[in-house]
Each structure stands twice: as C-alpha cells, then as structure tokens.
Amino acid sequence: MVSDIADASLAYEGVKRIEWADRTMPVLRQIRERFTAERPLDGLRVAACMHVTTETANLIRTLQAGGASVALAASNPLSTQDDTAAALVQEYGAEVFARSGTDREGYYRHIHQALETGPDLVLDDGCDLVNTLHIERTDLLGTVKGGCEETTTGVIRLHQMAREGVLRFPMVAVNDTDTKHMFDNRYGTGQSTLDGIVRATNTLLAGKTVVIAGFGYCGRGLAERARGLGSRVVVTEIDPVKALDAALQGFSVQPMAEAAAHGDVFITVTGNRDVIGGEHLRVMKDGAILANSGHFDIEIDVRALAELSVEVHRGVRPQADEYVLADGRRLVLLAEGRLVNLAAAEGHPAAVMDMSFADQALTCAWLAAEHATLEPAVHEVPKAIDTEVARLKLASMAISIDTLTAEQEDYLHSWRIGS
C-alpha cells in the first residue's frame, strides 16, 4: 500500500530531528539493540495510531529492529510532523498515513489505511483504531493477537468495552505503568503543556491565575510547574480524594463555576467532555486563555464558544483563535481545543518518552510471546517490564541504588519473624 504523507522531500529534515530525539532516548536505544539481536517480532505486522512525532519514529524503528513491519496513522492531525512522516517512509521503510491538519474524514481514512495491512498487533493512542476495528473492520479481528493503549482516555474506553463483553482481543494498559504515568504524564505533560501555552500566547505566567481542571498525574505536574513559574493555581476536581490531595499540597480547590470568573488561563486534563461549558464561558474575564491537554478535543465546549461569539479572529497568533462575545469580551482558544502541547509545541521531551516507548516496545515483545495465554480483556503491563525500564533509565543516568540482602529478602517474605 502506498503511504499518504504531505511531502516526501522533507525526509532529510525529519531524519535530523529523529536522530536528535534519539540522543536522549537511551533506554529505547538499548532495547533496539537487543531487538536487533533477538528479533522478538519477526514477521509480525503492527498497525499503530499514534502522534507522528520524532519520539514515535524512534519507537517505530525499534519495532522494525525486532522484525515487525509497521503501518502508522496519526492519532491527532495537529500533532503530525510532516518531516517525521516523510523520514519514516523515505528513510526507515515504514508505511505512514498522516498529514498535518487533515480533516476528520482524512483522519479516519488514514486509520482505515493502516488497518488494511492486516495487523497482528495494534498500538493505540486514544482507542480510535481499536474502536474502528470493532465497529467497522470486524473482518480483521481474527488476525489481531493483541495490542497496547497509551492514554488514560483510551484505557477508560477499553475498560468499558471489556465490561460490555465486546473486546475481542487482549489489550495492555501501557498508560498505567509507573514509568509511564508517573513521568510521561506528570513531568512530560506538565512541562510541554505550559511550553505550548507560552509559545502560542507569549504570556507571562507569573502572577496569573491558572485554573487546572483535573488533578490526576497530568494535573499534578501542571500545578507544580505553574506554581514554580509564579502562578496562582486553582484546581477543579470531581474526585474528593484528588481534591483533598490538591488542597493539602497548598493549591486552591474550587468548582469550575466559581473558578471561571477569575481565572486568566484555563487548562483541561480530565479525559471527559464539556469540562468547560457555556455557563463557564459566559462569566470569564476579557482575555482569558483556554487550553486543553486531554487527549480528545471535547473537554472545552468549542461549539458553545462559537455560539456565544459574534466574531472569530482566526490565527491572531499561531494556534490561537480569538472569540469576541457580544459584550466585547475576548476569549482566546488555543489549538482549536486539541492537545495544546503537541499542536502548539513539540509534545513531551524525548527523555520522558524514552520510558513510555520502552514500555511499549517491551510489551509488544511480551504480547508476541504470550498472547495465546491472555483473555480478551484489559491487562496490566508485567511488573518486570516496568522495573526493567526504570532500571535501564537509572543506569543511563549513572545512578545506582541499593539491593536487598538475603536476610532482608527473607524478612520481607516471612510472617514468622516478630518485632
């Protein structure tokens, strides 16, 4: 099948950027060397729906080193790097179906094209590929051995499919590993989201009131970094435990209906829809900035924003649209309500994605070997994989840790030893 990319001539620039990212991905690089020798994916076809970035390209290279052929579709049109797509096709031999800025029709066409390769394994970033398989391409389900999901949103959808008894093959929640959500979500999303907001607006965050919807790992990372830049941070939550955690960390906790009137910057990271709705938009101050860092563009009700507006000024800055309300107030929406860290910036630093994609690669190898023993359900990544990724990352940082003595091991595994 012929790839669908924007411009093959961008391949040289893409290779340079992929190699730059590879410099700070030592764990994935070690796994690539191991895969080259062991070939755990020999002869397997992989279909992936992921952000087409330089970091993803290094994951694709690793899967290929393990013997897999890979077809890649974009999980978000605004995050697609056309030079990376070109390099993957022209220099690394992958099939890529992704163009920056494509519309919804093009987005799903690309997913279908990736699925046409008849995958043995699938990698998903939001569950759209798996969803399409189960609804529109059921003819391909028989060959799929299993897959991985890397987002909170996608894992939520997979658990619902499993509860309803419709999931047809084992899926592994790579998102839920410690080396993914503790680092990718907290440190990666925390840094890259604020990077995207600053690039899109050139705003000074010091002294601003930043309202963060959701206090999971992503929200925690955002709150920590916004506070570090001098912002007053307000957290909105529906979970009393997470809200209490935010309060005990010194953040103000309020309902969105209260926070909406005095926030300067709003960031959604919940995985749910309509977190900022019309009732909130109506009371926001002039110049309020709206950004989403949840996976899908449903957390900010963009339709309600458009209905409230009498004018829309597109592209007042790159990835920034200004909506003028009837009373003259202006609200600035970033990246069309899509992932601001990938649309307005470059996404997570490669050093963070090193761990997430190492989890993906090792889990793919594990699935290739163990899929026949797994039920069609949502499975955890084996603890040994999570631990190995952390160990390799520490080694790449020249950090050593203690090991248990034989006596300590015995103590931890015995109930007979008293105080």
Automatic annotation (TrEMBL):
Enzyme Commission (EC) number: 3.13.2.1
Highest rank taxon of the organism: Bacteria
Cofactor binding comment, as recorded: Binds 1 NAD(+) per subunit.
Pathway named in the protein's UniProt entry: Amino-acid biosynthesis; L-homocysteine biosynthesis; L-homocysteine from S-adenosyl-L-homocysteine: step 1/1
UniProt-listed InterPro entries: Adenosylhomocyst_ase-like_sf, Adenosylhomocysteinase-like, Ado_hCys_hydrolase_NAD-bd, NAD(P)-bd_dom_sf, S-Ado-L-homoCys_hydrolase_CS
Alphabetized UniProt keyword annotations: Cytoplasm, Hydrolase, NAD, One-carbon metabolism
Transmembrane segments: none
Cofactor: NAD(+)
Annotated binding of substrate, by residue: 53, 125, 150, 180, 184
Claim: Plastid is one of the keywords in the record: no
Catalytic activity: S-adenosyl-L-homocysteine + H2O = L-homocysteine + adenosine
Binding site for NAD(+): 151-153, 185, 214-219, 237, 272, 293-295, 341
SUPFAM superfamilies: Formate/glycerate dehydrogenase catalytic domain-like, NAD(P)-binding Rossmann-fold domains
Keyword Phosphoprotein (UniProt): no
Domain S-adenosyl-L-homocysteine hydrolase NAD binding: 185-347
Pfam families according to UniProt: AdoHcyase, AdoHcyase_NAD
Subcellular location: Cytoplasm
NCBIfam families xrefs: ahcY, PRK05476.2-3
Function as written in the Swiss-Prot or TrEMBL entry: May play a key role in the regulation of the intracellular concentration of adenosylhomocysteine.
Family membership: Belongs to the adenosylhomocysteinase family.
Protein name per Swiss-Prot or TrEMBL: Adenosylhomocysteinase
Classification lineage: Bacteria, Bacillati, Actinomycetota, Actinomycetes, Streptosporangiales
